[in-house]
Design goal:
The chain has 299 residues and is mainly α. A two-stranded antiparallel sheet has the order 1-2. Helix 1 runs antiparallel to helix 2. 12% of the residues are buried.
């Protein structure tokens, strides 16, 4: 509509510039205060004045015509350039069709499960790392084994002694439960070490941060390619908040590697909050997904 208005303005300006005022025709004779005026002299004088007036009018008309032509040309060029820009708008192809539109929700569903798996790996690594302190604390509660390697061995020696110490036998008997607990923890720690959750958690967390950020940007870009605008709402805000939490969790890693418990707590809190926000984002994205399926076509 703006370009049509410019066309009309240019045409009106050009038409007004080409309009010429008709000169007033004077009578051959004129009577003033009852006397007749010599029209030959009057005609000469008026002729000079009219010639000068016509010359001035021609000059003004020339200037107005030049201005109108310039305005008309500028309006036409502006309209043509804008129309060419609209005509040259990119064709996104698959990206703005149903294939590209479904890429974002599919990846987000997969990454929600991937986030939970990565979090479990992180808790396994934390478990493996802290089990040593738990095992050490249990070992400190064991009685003196008097050179024996295990409580079972010490108990057998106490029972086979010439003089059986009943109190010691009872203490060692109670310590058997602690020893079994220590052995179970040691077995669990060996299994966790074999699974190597530390390196897996680090690798999957890095991949999650990359893919999550990439597809958090891809989603709005796809919406803009299809609709020409974004739709601010809970889904968009949740996605932006999730990217911030991912960045915060990743920023804690250097301090965590130096042994900072505060950084570990912030890292865990950011990821747990991120999973909760991720789950909410998926639920808010379902109505959008249904609209995409309704208003897009393959491919």
């Amino acid at each position: 509509m703006r370009f049509q208005a410019l066309h009309i303005l240019a045409l009106v300006t050009s038409a007004s510039a080409f309009t010429v005022q008709q000169p007033t025709i004077l009578p051959s004779t004129a009577t003033r205060a009852g006397s007749t005026i010599n029209m030959s002299q009057f005609s000469n004088d008026r002729g000079d004045e009219m010639s000068e007036s016509i010359s001035t009018s021609n000059s003004n008309w020339g200037k107005a015509s030049s201005i109108a032509s310039a305005l008309s040309t500028s309006a036409l060029l502006w309209s043509a350039s804008a129309q060419n820009a609209l005509a040259d708008s990119p064709d996104w192809g698959l990206f703005e069709g149903r294939t590209g539109s479904l890429l974002h929700p599919i990846m987000m569903f997969l990454m929600l499960g991937y986030s939970i798996w990565t979090a479990l790996l992180g808790f396994n690594w934390r478990r493996q790392r802290t089990m040593g302190d738990e095992i050490s604390a249990l070992k400190k509660t064991l009685p003196d084994l008097q050179g024996a390697k295990t409580v079972t061995e010490a108990l057998s020696a106490a029972k086979s002694a010439e003089s059986v110490d009943t109190a010691r036998v009872n203490t060692l008997q109670t310590a058997l439960d602690v020893e079994r607990e220590v052995e179970a923890l040691q077995k669990e720690r060996k299994a966790l070490a074999a699974a190597n959750p530390r390196d897996q958690h680090f690798a999957q967390g890095a991949l999650l941060a990359f893919l999550g950020t990439a597809f958090a940007i891809e989603g709005p870009l796809n919406t803009y390619a299809r609709a020409g605008k974004l739709f601010p709402g809970p889904h968009l805000y949740a996605g932006a908040g999730l990217v911030v939490l991912w960045a915060l969790a990743a920023a804690c890693v250097p301090a965590m590697q130096k042994g900072s418990d505060t950084a570990r707590s912030v890292h865990i809190g950011a990821n747990v909050a991120g999973i909760g926000l991720f789950a909410w984002q998926v639920t808010t994205g379902l109505p959008i997904l249904f609209k995409v399926i309704e208003f897009t076509k393959w491919p």
